[in-house]
Amino acid sequence: MPSLFQVDLNADLGEIPGPWERAPDSELLELVSSASVACGGHAGDAETMRRTVAAAKRLGVTVGAHPGYPDREGFGRREVGASPADVGQWVREQVSALLHVAAAERAEVRYVKPHGAMYNRAGRDAAVAVAIARAVREVDPELALLGLASSALMGAADEEGLRAVPEAFLDRGYAIDGTLLPRDAPGAVLDDPEEVARRAVRLVREGRVRAGDGTELSLRAASYCVHGDGRHPARLVRAVRAAFASEGIAVASFAR
Predict the structure, then answer these.
(1) Nearest to residue 107, comparing CAs of 146, 46, 64?
(2) Which of 22, 38, 105, 169 allows an S-S link to 43, with CB 3.0 to 4.6 Å?
(3) Mind listing the pLDDT tens digit for each residue in 129-174?
(4) Do 107 and 77 form a contact (C-beta atoms < 8 A)?
(5) pTM to 2 decimals?
């Protein structure tokens, strides 16, 4: 009998080795259904993109572009106060770079997911959200746009005629307003595999998650993320996959 629930698991990959980064993780690529590939902003270069895209294609993992602020020192997680026009231009350049690499590998790029501070700002700043959505549409209107569920970015995707894919995070804590807790806040980063797995099952089955202050939030998503630069992301995703299997939850890319 087919599963009642079928969900996408994504991770951020293709980040160059360095203080905040790690090389493409073959374990993660064997566990996720979608890979958001850093494309030259906060991390990544042509060769890393090529190796990551080639590995994803070989494993049947959907490829997405993961553009971010060009702030490698801060790994794209610091707000730089850029104008919407600048953000849109960075997205165009970085997504186009990954599309070029993917074409050489005879692979498809199916979606765009902003990174770090760009992602968080696009969730609340309508002008930046529109700039990102328009940049994606200009590069390729067939690309989907991943963003925080019920965020400004999802609204902008709808307005620009893009497929909006709401996302939830399995390894990050939520604030009462449905945004992510700042990374330095207590409970902001979750790294216990059993806790993350329980949370994942509840998010999928009930559409609910507990915020940092204990408030129950309603949250419906089509894709669920574990960060690839965490302490042991493959352990988290393996635990989630095992919990999903025991609950009859299937894993497959939203793009299929």
Answers:
(1) 64
(2) 38
(3) 999 999 999 999 999 999 999 899 999 999 999 999 999 999 999 9
(4) no
(5) 0.93
d(Cα 82, Cα 17) in Å, to the nearest integer? 26
Q: According to the 3-state scheme, what is the secondary structure of the chain?
A: CCCCEEEEEEEEECCCCECCECCCCHHHHCCCCEEEEECCCCCCCHHHHHHHHHHHHHHCCEEEEECCCCCCCCCCCCCCCCCHHHHHHHHHHHHHHHHHHHHHCCCCEEEECCCHHHHHHHHHCHHHHHHHHHHHHHHCCCCEEEEECCCHHHHHHHHCCCCEEEEEECCECECCCCCECCCCCCCCECCCHHHHHHHHHHHHHHCEEECCCCCEEECCCCEEEECCCCCCHHHHHHHHHHHHHHHCEEECCCCC
Greatest Cα pair distance, the chain, in angstroms, is: 51
Helix axes 126-139, 116-124, angle to 10 degrees: 120
